[in-house]
Design goal:
Blueprint (H helix, E strand, L loop, with lengths): L2 E5 L3 H13 L3 E5 L2 H11 L3 E4 L8 H7 L7 E4 L4 H4 L5 E3 L5 H19 L1
Parallel strand pairs: 1-2, 1-3, 3-4, 4-5
Helix pairs in contact: 2-3
Amino acid sequence: MRRILIAEDDILLGGVYEILLEEAGFEVLWSRDGQEALEAFDAFAPDLLITDNAMPRMTGAELIRAVEGSRVPVLMVSASDPRALKVEPDMWLEKPINPARLLNAVRALQHRDVQAAA
């Protein structure tokens, strides 16, 4: 897992996620909303999608449904409970979160991905 697509409309959070993950060695593409992330999805070919829910143009729940058949793991970072949204991300972190918690979640998903491939 090396390529991470982020869908986050909050400029501060998106910037922090991008810097944190790039410094950890990941290739990151940050999209400002779900629609932008969906448009970049195929060309970027992410190994992981990190998405918020409440975003303009397309919510994170709509984005998750749109990429559902891709087999790309999804980490939802949102105050919205995915069960209430009727989506099933691979992992959910309830906002607010700190950078260490985000990085730990990404690494846990990365480890799970490596184990599944073995």
